[in-house]
Amino acid sequence: MEDLKVRLYNSRVEISLRLAKILMVFNPTGLTIEKLICIDFLVLNLGDFIPEQNSLHPAIPRRDSQLAITRKTFTDALILMKNYRIVGENYTRHGILFTVTDKTFSFTNAVQNEYLMKMDHNIHIAKEIFGSLSESEMKKLVGSKFGRLDMEGHCEPLH
After folding, report:
1. CA atoms of 31 and 90, how far apart (whole Å)
2. Residue-level pLDDT, tens digit, the chain, 159 residues
3. Which is a Pfam family this sequence falls into (predicted)?
């Protein structure tokens, strides 16, 4: 029998689950892909924005570079979920808003583990603290970390 290797970490399936969980917490508000990308970054790296909180992913150098590959992966994940009617789309004058459907809850609750419990916690904190920010304010907040995440612990103060 052929040994199949399945990559779940940062795959369309894992990202689909993260995005669906974000949409569930923000429901009934629909979110643009830009806001989804920002919220996901906040959820994964929450400790960078709120030091007393734990990040979901490790504090590796250049973690802000994950945003460079995120859009394509998110688009693929959203298409996958649209095909299974796990997310819906609302076309507005402000762009496409992604929303939950009657299948989103079942999808997000099909898997339960410690990682997903921590993810839920971070999503709720991100919504509580940053959820009222506009898309441009959220992009500015996330952008404020660019370059800084690479230098922590690797530089000395200038005198």
Report:
1. 10
2. 555 455 556 677 889 999 999 999 999 999 999 999 999 999 999 999 999 999 987 776 666 666 666 778 889 999 999 999 999 999 999 899 999 999 999 999 998 889 899 999 999 999 999 999 999 999 999 888 766 544 344 333 333
3. MC2
How far apart CA 53 and CA 133 sit, in angstroms, is 19
In angstroms, the CA 59 to CA 101 distance is 34
Query: Is residue 2 one of the residues assigned to a domain?
Result: no
| Number of domains within the chain | 1
Q: Which domain holds residue 145?
A: 12-151
Distance CA(19)–CA(144), nearest Å, equals 23
Q: How many beta carbons lie within 10 A of that of residue 83, not counting itself?
A: 9
Q: Is residue 7 part of a domain?
A: no
